[in-house]
Amino acid sequence: MNHSDLERVAIAMVAKDKGLLAADESTGTIKKRFDKIKLENTEENRRAYRDLLFTTPGIAQWISGVILFDETIRQKTAGGVAFPDYLAKLGIIPGIKVDEGAKPLAGFAGETITEGLDGLRERLQTYYRLGARFAKWRAVIDIGEDIPTRFAIEANAQALARYAALCQEQNIVPIVEPEVLMDGAHTLERCEEVTNLVLAEVFAQLERHRVFLEGMILKPNMVISGKLSSTQATPEQVAIATVRCLKRHAPAAVPGIMFLSGGQTPAEASLHLSLMNRVAPLPWQLSFSYGRALQDAALSAWGGKPASAGAAQKEFYKWARLNGLARNGGFQAGMEQQAA
C-alpha cells in the first residue's frame, strides 16, 4: 500500500468541475437499457455504446474517471486502443466494479448482502495490471416494514470495509458505496434516519479494518423521499438533510463524496448536487458518480444507430457539463432546457 499514490488518485477523482461516469452496468442491466431502444444485447453493441461515450470530444473537461465492468475493461475502441489506455491518455482515470451483486441475506426476508469477497485480492491484482486505479463496491439497504435490520446494516458495512482494505493493499482507491434505496413510500425523515445508521456503521467498520481515509471515496445516496411517498421533499430540503447527515458521519479526512443518482431524473440529480455545493464551508469535495443521469439522454439519441452517434455524444457532453457546473453550485433548475 502506497498512501501517497492512493491519496493522489482520490484527489484527482474529485478534481474541480469533474466527476465520474458510471459505465459499469452488468450484462443484465445494460440489456434493460438496450431493450428500451430495441437494440440487441450483444458484446459488440455493448462495446460500441461504451466507445461512443468514451470518445466524446472534450469530455475530459468534466469527467475525471470512468467505472468499467469486467467485460468493458478488456475491450477496445474502434481504433484498436484498449479502453483503459485510451481513457488514461485523455487524463481520465479508469476504474472497475468488483462486487458480484446484492443477493438475498439468508434468514432476513427482504434484505440483501453484496457478494464478491472470495478471490477479490487476485482479481484486484489483475485489474490493476489492466489499468484500473480505483474500484467500486455497492451495498444495498432497502427501507420497508421492519427493515433494515441492524444485522443487515452491519453485515454490509463489514463487507464494504473488507473490500476497501483489500483495494488499498493493491494500491487501488476504493469507492465505498452504501446505497439506501429511494424505492418505497418512506419519508425524507425516515431516509435520513436510516442513512445516519448506515454511515455510522460504515465508518466504524472502516476504522476497524484500518482503511486509509485519505485514500478512499464515499459514494452515498442522497437523503430523499421514497418514490411512492405522498410527501415529496423539496430540492432544498434534500440538500439540507443530505449535508446534515454527511457532516455527522463523514470524516474530513475523506477527500470526496461522489453521489449516486439512485433513480432520480437527470435534472433532479444535478439540482440537488448544485444546491449542496452552495453550502459553505464543507470539509470534502461534493461530486457526482452518475450512470443513468449522464447516459439516459445519450442512449435515447443514439438508438443503436451509427448515424446518430454524434447526436448521442452531444447529449452526453451536455449532461457532463451541467453536472460539472453543479460541482460549484452553478446548475439552475431549467438549465437543461436552455442547453438543449
Q: What report would you give on this structure?
A:
This protein is of the alpha/beta class and 340 residues long. The protein has twelve helices and ten strands. The protein has helices at residues 3-13, 27-36, 43-54, 83-90, 120-130, 150-169, 188-208, 235-249, 266-276, 292-302, 309-326, 335-338, and strands at 19-23, 63-68, 93-97, 102-104, 112-114, 134-141, 173-180, 217-218, 256-259, 285-290. The protein has an eight-stranded parallel barrel with strand order 1-2-3-6-7-8-9-10, surrounded by six helices. A two-stranded antiparallel sheet has the order 4-5. Helix 7 (188-208) packs parallel to helix 8 and helix 10 runs antiparallel to helix 11 (309-326). The longest helix has 21 residues, at 188-208. The protein is globular and about 50 Å long. The mean pLDDT is 96.
| Poorly predicted ranges | none
Q: H/E element string?
A: HEHHEHEEEHEHEHEHEHEHHH
- Our count of helices gives 12
Whole-number mean pLDDT: 96
- Helix- and strand-based class? alpha/beta
Features:
alpha/beta, 12 helices, globular
Helices, strands, pairings?
Elements: H1 3-13, E1 19-23, H2 27-36, H3 43-54, E2 63-68, H4 83-90, E3 93-97, E4 102-104, E5 112-114, H5 120-130, E6 134-141, H6 150-169, E7 173-180, H7 188-208, E8 217-218, H8 235-249, E9 256-259, H9 266-276, E10 285-290, H10 292-302, H11 309-326, H12 335-338
Parallel strand pairs: 1-2, 1-10, 2-3, 3-6, 6-7, 7-8, 8-9, 9-10
Antiparallel strand pairs: 4-5
Helix pairs in contact: 6-7, 7-8, 8-9, 9-10, 9-11, 10-11
Brief overview, please?
The protein is α/β, with parallel strands linked by helices. Helix content is 45%, strand content 15%.
